[in-house]
UniProtKB/TrEMBL annotation:
Pfam families: Kazal_2, OATP. GO terms for biological process: monoatomic ion transport; sodium-independent organic anion transport. This is Solute carrier organic anion transporter family member. The gene is LOC116231822. It comes from Phasianus colchicus (Common pheasant). Residues 415-470 form the Kazal-like domain. The keyword Cell membrane applies. One of its GO terms (molecular function) is sodium-independent organic anion transmembrane transporter activity. GO terms for cellular component: basolateral plasma membrane; extracellular space.
Length: 656
């Protein structure tokens, strides 16, 4: 005979009641709660994996350019192609999200990310070991000295310098914030991999003549991609075991109330929730009207344009920030990546958390959020203009940025590196193995410095009798040069000030980031929020994330002074930039895009104040009208009460 479940069946835990006052056993509540926690944990880890992989790829921009001898604009196309995958599925998934098995969709996305990371590693092993440019020297049989300047034509080719050897808004804030820790660890991993030689494990590291500050240095970019692929694969696993949907807290998995569920013995007759049938034709039919309704909202429309400009400035900034630090302030790429991961990203996370706390602390309305976001962005923009004060001199490269001191230069459009001091050396124009003369000038190779002899081996090699270094300040045969570019001391000293300024700007921008994001949720109807997020993300990535690396890279390429040469011929990656032009292009683009953001922020504030102040006034008028009606009704009731009779309120007080 069927029995009715009562709370007495669950003596180990007290019963709960849902919104309809129906008894809900504690075991069911805990079961649903555990599933929710698993889902939130898995979702947070997937956000982490995505940020981890994306930031690592951004940090490896210079390494990939040098490894495959490509320009910055070509890398921009590679980097921007990531957004093409989002274009194909983002709108569809965001629109059909409530009608599909979302956990499995997330799982498939993580698997695709994992597969992409593993496929990206393949060129490293298909193309063989990396051989960087190095000048060929002539060995004198009578001594151990080598000569870079030889009257006979020297054979210039790339040689390997290594020796072979063998639910709620609270939860939604938590999930997104956990995703912010991914980029931090991604940049830290990038810093570690950039400090390792690209062919680590198969070459003799001691035989390498260059260090991580050299523009020919390539780190182990592929190693981090293997780790990223593994992390994304792990992130996909939990979603395959999650149900189609999770019940809300206080509700049973079965539509019927659990207090009325019949059971036989101790086994509940509960059926899993049925998955709704998705009708594609109906979904497509409703798509355009929904899109029209969304873009008919002027606040959301301005917000989308603002997001696009912010994506452009942010993506361009992050993609080429380490290259800018390397070229402008003479720091290694590994150190630049490390500083971004340790200082800039954590301070950004702190700013986002603090921005959310201020919203909650002061209970900011949407108009207050808009004002706060606008003011913080404008303050950060004004600080951003101070970047242009961080001047750094251009590297003094003989024959390119400075003349050969004291010597007649044999100048021509394609032969500007030749002078009378190295005319008899038969130097190759397509070589890049810089040396620093003791006069503080960098030469493209020891051959162009006119060096006749050398001492030491490997990284400790010193060239002597450099005719182009002598000039008027050195005696004959006393000038020397060492491997590597000359250090720019003033640039190194200015770097801490630049880093402090950038940290302050990142913190202030992050303060307004959370209020800005909340504006979108407050300005669209609840049934359109999921679709609005998809459209906003799509617009930002396709019109910002895709083109920004390309046009930033193309304009940065225009500031290149000396291109490398591929082993198969043709120009490779850039070896040295005009740092002044680089600074003006890079910082100028960011400043221009953010100026447009300032204008849109002010427009957004005006629209929100007009829209929500009118709503607030209507709400206030309604409340005042209700209060007036209530007062009148109370007055009427008092008049109708007979003398000596008690009111309902007085009766209640009597029974208390």
């Amino acid at each position: 005979m069927d029995k009715i479940i009562t709370t007495g069946k669950f003596k180990d835990k007290p019963p709960f009641r849902d919104s309809s006052s129906a008894v809900v056993p504690a075991k069911v509540m805990c079961h649903n709660c555990s599933k929710l926690k698993i889902f939130l944990g898995a979702l947070a880890f997937s956000f982490f994996a995505k940020g981890f992989s994306g930031s690592y790829m951004k940090s490896m921009s210079s390494q990939i350019e040098r490894r495959f001898e490509i320009s910055s604009s070509i890398f921009g196309i590679i980097d921007g192609s990531f957004e093409l995958g989002n274009l194909m599925v983002m709108v569809l998934v965001s629109y059909l999200g409530p009608r599909v098995h979302r956990p499995k969709v997330i799982a498939v996305g993580c698997l695709i990310m994992s597969l992409g990371a593993f496929l990206s590693v393949m060129p490293q092993f298909l193309m063989g070991r990396y051989n960087y440019e190095r000048i060929a020297v002539t060995v004198d049989n009578s001594s151990s000295s080598v000569s870079a300047c030889s009257p006979a034509p020297s054979v210039g080719h790339s040689v390997s310098d290594a020796t072979e050897t063998p639910s709620t808004m609270k939860n939604s804030g938590l999930v997104r914030s956990s995703g912010m820790f991914g980029p931090t660890l991604g940049f830290l991993l990038g810093s570690f991999c950039a400090s390792l030689w690209v062919d680590i494990g198969v070459v003799d590291i001691d035989a390498i003549n260059i260090n991580p500050k050299d523009t020919r240095w390539v780190g182990a970019w592929w190693l981090g991609l293997l780790i990223c692929g593994a992390v994304n694969f792990i992130a996909s696993l939990p979603f395959f075991f999650l149900p189609y949907s999770l019940t809300k807290e206080g509700e049973d998995e079965n539509p019927k109330k659990i207090s009325h569920l019949p059971v036989q013995g101790d086994h509940c007759k509960t059926d899993p929730p049925a998955q709704p049938q998705l009708k594609f034709s109906e979904a497509v039919k409703d798509f355009l009207p929904t899109l029209k309704k969304l873009f008919g909202n002027p606040v959301f429309l301005v917000y989308v344009f603002l997001t696009i400009l912010q994506y452009n400035s942010l993506v361009g900034l992050i993609t080429y920030e380490t290259k800018f630090m390397e070229q402008q302030f003479n720091v290694s790429v590994a150190k630049a990546i490390f500083l971004v991961g340790v200082i800039l990203l954590p301070i950004t996370i702190l700013g986002m958390f603090l921005g959310g706390y201020l919203i909650k602390k002061f209970k900011l309305h949407v108009t207050g959020m808009a004002k706060f976001a606008c003011i913080s962005f404008i303050v950060a923009y004004l600080l951003n203009l101070l970047y242009f004060m961080c001047n750094c001199e251009v590297l003094q490269l003989a024959g390119l940025t400075v003349p050969y001191s004291g010597f007649k230069q044999l100048s021509s459009p394609k032969n500007s590196f030749m002078a009378s001091c190295n005319a008899d050396c038969s130097c190759k124009m397509d070589q890049w193995d810089p040396v620093c003369g003791d006069n503080g000038i960098t030469y493209m190779t020891a051959c162009f410095a006119g060096c006749k002899s050398s001492t030491g081996m490997g990284k400790n090699m010193v060239f002597h009798n450099c005719s182009c270094v002598e000039g008027h300040e050195h005696g004959h045969g006393n000038a020397s040069a060492v491997l590597g570019q000359c250090q720019r001391e003033s640039c190194t000293k200015a770097f801490p000030y630049f880093l402090a300024l950038q940290t302050a700007c990142a913190f202030i921008l992050a303060l307004g980031g959370t209020p800005t994001y909340m504006i979108m949720f407050r300005s669209v109807s609840p049934d359109l929020k999921s679709f609005a997020v998809g459209i906003e993300t799509l617009g930002g990535r396709i019109l910002g994330g895709l083109p920004a690396p390309i046009y930033f890279g193309a304009l940065i390429d225009e500031t290149c002074l000396k291109w490398g040469t591929k082993s198969c011929g043709g120009s490779g990656s850039c070896r040295i930039y005009d740092t002044k032009a680089f600074r003006n292009v890079y910082l100028g683009l960011i400043a221009g895009l953010r100026a447009g953001c300032c204008v849109l922020y002010m427009v957004l504030c005006v629209l929100i104040m007009r829209r929500f102040k009118r709503d607030d006034k209507e709400i206030t008028d309604i409340k005042n009208a209700e209060e007036t009606i209530n007062k009148e009704s109370v007055t009427v009731n008092k008049k109708e009460v007979l003398p000596g009779a008690k009111t309902s309120e007085e009766s209640e007080e009597t029974y208390m």
